[in-house]
Design goal:
One of its GO terms (biological process) is metal ion transport. Its main location: other. By secondary structure, the protein is an alpha/beta fold. It folds into 2 domains: 180 residues, Rossmann fold; 114 residues, Rossmann fold, CATH 3.40.50. 46% of the residues lie in helices and 14% in strands. Strand 3, helix 4 and strand 4 form a beta-alpha-beta unit. The longest helix has 26 residues. The radius of gyration is 22 Å and the shape is globular. The structure holds zinc ion. Zinc ion (ZN) binds next to loops.
Amino acid sequence: MFGGVNRALREAKAWMTGSLLVAALVIPGVANAQDVRLPVSASFSILGDLVRAVGGDRIDLTTLVGPDQDAHVYEPTPADIGKLTATKVFFINGLGFEGWMPRLRKASHYTGRVVEVTEGLKPRTTRDQGKLVTDPHMFQDPALAKAMVTRIRDALTEADPAGKTYYAERAKNYELALDDLITWARKQLAPISPTRRVVLTSHDAFGYLGERFDIRFLAPEGVSTESEASARDVAKLIRVIRTTGVKAVFMENITNPRLIERIAHDAKVQVDGKLYSDALSQNQEASTYLQLFQHNIRAIAAAMKDDR
Ligand SMILES: [Zn+2]
C-alpha cells in the first residue's frame, strides 16, 4: 500500500526536479515544492474542510459529496470513482456514515490508503426505531473534531514525510481555533436555562453536539436519512413538542424541509431556520467547518432564549 505512495512521491520528486530545471531555463524562480501536491480525497464536504485545514498547499484535494448534499444517500458516479482512484489517501468518517462505502470500494478497486478519522474514538449510541445504533456524526462535536485533525495530520505526514513540520503547525493552529470556538460556544449558551435546552431537527445528527453542550435534540428521523420517519414516530414527536414546549425548531441543509414544516404546523410552533448538519453550505454562511459551527450555535442559542 505504502509502496504505491512512496513510488508516486519518488516519481513526483523526479518530475519536480525536471520541472525545476525547465523553470530555471524558462521562467526562473516560478516553480517550487508546492507544484507537487499530494493527491488526497475526502468522502464529504465537512471532512474535506478539516483535511484542507491541515494539508493546505501541500495537498490536492478531491471531495466526493459536496456542499448541501446528503452523504447518507449519495451514489458514487463513474466520474467520482475516476477522481478517487487518482488519490493516494482517502479520508472517510466511518461508523457507517458513508453507507455506500462498500459499494464504492468494490467498484473502484482503490489501492491507496483509507483513513477512518473516527477510528479509536468512542462513539455514542442511540435508539433508532427501537434498536440501539451507533451515531456516526462525531464531527458535530468540535472537541472530537480535534481528535480527527490529529489523525489527518498523522496520515498526511506518513504519506508525505517532507511535510511533517508544515502539517504539525497547521494542525496545531486549527486545534487552537477549535478550542476558541468551544469557549465561545459555552459563553453563547450559558444564559439558557436547562428547561429551554431542547431543539427539534429533521434527523438525529446533533447528538454529539448535544452531549458536549447540554442540549437535547429531538428528530423524527434516525441517525441516517435513509430511513423515513414513521407516522407513529411523527405523532409521538408532536406530543413531545406540545408537552415539553420546545421552541427551537430547525430544518437542515441536506434534507427536505417538508416533514419539519408539517410537524411544526401540527404542533403549532414556528420553524426558526436552517441548521447545517452533514454538509457545508454552497453559500458563505457555512462554507467552512468553523463557520458551520458558529452558525449552528448562534441559531440554536437565539431560538432557545428564555424571552421568546
Ligand atoms: Zn446524518
